[in-house]
Amino acid sequence: MCGIIGAVAKSAITPVLEGLARLEYRGYDSSGISILANNEIKTIKAQGTLSNLKQRLLSQALEGDCCIGHTRWATHGRANVTNAHPHQCGQVSVVHNGIIENYLQLKQKLIQWGHHFNSSTDSEVIPHLINHYLSQQMTQEQAIKKAIAQLKGSYALGVLINGVSNNLYAIKQGSPLVISQGNEGAYMASDAMALGADSGKIYYPKDNELIKLNSHEITLCGGANNNEIHYINNKHCAKLVSKGTRSSFMEKEIFEQVDLLKRLSVNNHTSEYSTINFKDLTKITIIACGTSYYAASVAKAWFEKYANILVEIDIASEYRYRSPIVTNNELAIFVSQSGETADTLAALRYAKSKKAQTLALVNVVNSTIAREANFTFEIYAGPEIGVASTKAFSCQLAIFYKMALEAAKQRAFIEKAELTQLALNFAQLPDTIEKVLQRCAEIKSMAKKLCKYSNILFLGRGALTPIAQEGALKLKEISYIHAEAYAAGELKHGPIALLDEHMPVLVIAPKNALTDKLLSNIQEVQARNAPLFIIGDKYIREHIHLQEDQFFELPAIPESILPIISVIPMQLLALYSAQILGKNVDQPRNLAKSVTVE
Ligand code: F6R
Prior knowledge:
Blueprint: E1 3-9, H1 13-23, E2 30-37, E3 40-47, H2 50-58, E4 66-72, E5 87-89, E6 92-100, H3 103-112, H4 125-134, H5 140-148, E7 153-162, E8 166-173, E9 178-181, E10 185-189, E11 201-203, E12 211-213, E13 218-220, E14 232-233, H6 249-255, H7 257-266, H8 270-273, E15 283-288, H9 290-307, E16 311-315, H10 316-319, E17 330-336, H11 342-353, E18 357-362, H12 368-372, E19 375-378, H13 391-411, H14 416-427, H15 429-438, H16 440-450, E20 455-460, H17 465-479, E21 482-487, E22 505-509, H18 515-527, E23 532-536, H19 538-543, E24 551-553, H20 562-580
Parallel strand pairs: 15-16, 15-17, 17-18, 18-19, 20-21, 20-22, 22-23, 23-24
Antiparallel strand pairs: 1-4, 1-10, 2-3, 2-4, 5-6, 6-7, 7-8, 8-12, 9-10, 9-11, 11-14, 12-13
Helix pairs in contact: 3-4, 4-5, 7-13, 7-15, 9-13, 9-17, 13-14, 15-20, 16-20, 17-20
The protein binds fructose -6-phosphate.
Fructose -6-phosphate (F6R) is lined by residues 289-292, 336-338, 341, 344, 388-389, 473, 477, 595.
């Protein structure tokens, strides 16, 4: 992961610091900048969030027209100042996103050549290698290329060199990188969202294209033709997001879901979805990670039930390494909020190599996954800043619901009247979500009681099992309470052994054909003295007597849209538990928003 940024512009430190603020979602355990000022490179770094770096910079008046910056998510070496980027060797300073797999061999070689290392990172070998080749009278371009040729792994680099001429270079292999030529300068960054208002036009470099940035010009090195740089509009340009009056981005994003769903129910994107020929498909495979994978699990239930299509779902990191079978006429859907998740991207490349039709379902429309898939559908969630995904999940579900209905229409599997009713159900989403959010105080009371426990079991059935899994994931991510989720029917096959008065169980309990079976599961929980919490239908409340703060009544709504509604109390439960426990909701430990390493 990690975020990198560079600028060649007047007062280059300003766009770099602004960019780092926008990139902090990629990692926030340390940050740093290098700036070319008065003919020398100055590097300043700090442990912890960007505010610590800004504090350090207050005492220094740093002016210069060439600057690089980095916000880190530790892979090699602890999160401390020494391991923070940029890494400098002589007059070469480097910011790196990715992993250099052969760094130990390279380090050994460099030590033999007389180099001394400060950090335990893989990245530090890069400035040392470049510096070594510069000392052998190579040009800057030759030195960078020679160094790069020895790296194994993935990288996006910003390289600042103070020499006969002062230059900023950018290059990538496998990791995301974007370049922009603005009116006031030239910029490079890990993603377009990091770039400010002066970056309306962007270019996504190819692997191993070495690019030199000047304030007035961007050049492809090695005699390549600059006409090869094809700029596109930066759709994310200058969209600076604030959390407004909310206590955290996550809270803001949870409450934003009403408007987002309103927009999705008004906008009729069905013509977009009809570009897919669902009629002749033999199979849909949906591949994703984390929360996006749980959206895929719900989608499977909808596609199967309403369109009678065979659907397989897979975790991207498993799919990419297990030689999956791609059939003729298969649609492989890749779900990713960021569009940059390394495992999902690798899975997409595998499916493409096996000639599957590929479709990206993303929030970031210029992302690598979006650019590489045959089709791309946007989820229209807007920038999601909170590390724990919330609004992207409900928007992913909303788009999947619409796609499933389009598939149902094309395959004529259900009656027209039922199809019409399912479409009408969708229109109930915004108001119903609003009603649930208005009752957030009830969830807060539940959180107060629940967050006293160190372990929690979540149960669901059918399309609500992934919602239970998502609820457990949200809770552990931001409150650090250990939570696991199971299909309720699985309880008796093992997890029931855990139940006692210290192991609470939270059940999502709707009124449907399986309610009586679920009631039996609930009885089994109560019989073992496990504290019981229910997010469920009124009918369940009539059968199971619980205290006010142990039952949250779901609004009476059609079953088809229940997954989208029932995740809302789950998100609130995680949010309030984390707040009560005093955790950093938006920047939970060890996590980053965009997972661009394996
Ligand atoms: C959980 C969360 C992660 C992501 C996962 C995939 O709150 O955000 O589990 O869902 O890392 O990320 P994307 O969707 O960007 O591919």
